[in-house]
User: Fold Alpha/beta hydrolase from Nonomuraea montanisoli.
Amino acid sequence: MSTSQQPPLGRLHQVDGRRLFLHRSGAGGPAVVFLPGASAFGLDYLNVHERVSAFTTSVLHDRAGTGWSDPAELPRTAAEVATELRDLLRAADVPGPYVLVAHSLGGAYARRFLQLFPDEVAGVVYLDAFNEDWDVHMADERLRLKPQPVPGDVMLRLVTLLAGGQYRKMLATWPREVRDALLARHLTVASQRAGAQERGDMPGLAAEIRAAGPVPGRPLLAFTALGVDPAMKLMMPKKTLTAMSDGKIRLGEALAAAAPGGEHRVLENARHSTICTDEPDAVSQGVRDLWQRVC
Assistant:
């Protein structure tokens, strides 16, 4: 993905021969670090980030191969991404321990970060996030994790075209210069391809985390979003959608029960892809509640 255009906020840091994007605001600690989902960029979480930066340091970033960061061959292992994030935080002089806020696929990288660097994690907020035990809680076999082939260019162009309306709605309240830059970067075939590549082997990510042993326990707050993304309505019958919601609730409850100070909150009206714009106040309050428990 081209990085010729400078990001509208933040800066690029040199990490292991690559330039990686990071934007920080606020002061104090523990610092809150957002881990984007697949097809998402750090600045997509700017609305919650600004609320969080009112009480502590808040950090947004782009993984290599996404957003304003330099290209990388995708997909990558969760260990590669977690180690890169740790190195980026050090390069940007953001000291740990951290409160990780992981959305969707970002959950895989948060779980691996916990395994690799447990002393550098104060707590975790999961935003309808990936978990290696997803299949355990999904009674409908059609919902189990499967490899997802990357679509061809024609399909990616169609996806890019159809995504425009959703991104414009999601980013409507962002500052104009930030919104315009995000739209220009999101609405490219390269960006859509990178997102598809990152989520292409979710069974492999789950296997990697399970093979590394138990995920160390830390205080956590797990959000479950029960709203339905428009694409899911098109692809899944109502019975399957209901089974997925039930499974997600079981997963959130199990995640909270397995951790010290674990908590599970259900957001009835938030959708998976847009949880931070559907329920920004609830998400922001949840991050603050967890942060206050660990600081």
The CA atoms of residues 153 and 187 lie 14 Å apart. The chain has a mean pLDDT of 95. The domain at 11-147+201-294 is CATH 3.40.50.1820 (Rossmann fold). DSSP finds twelve helices and eight strands in the chain.
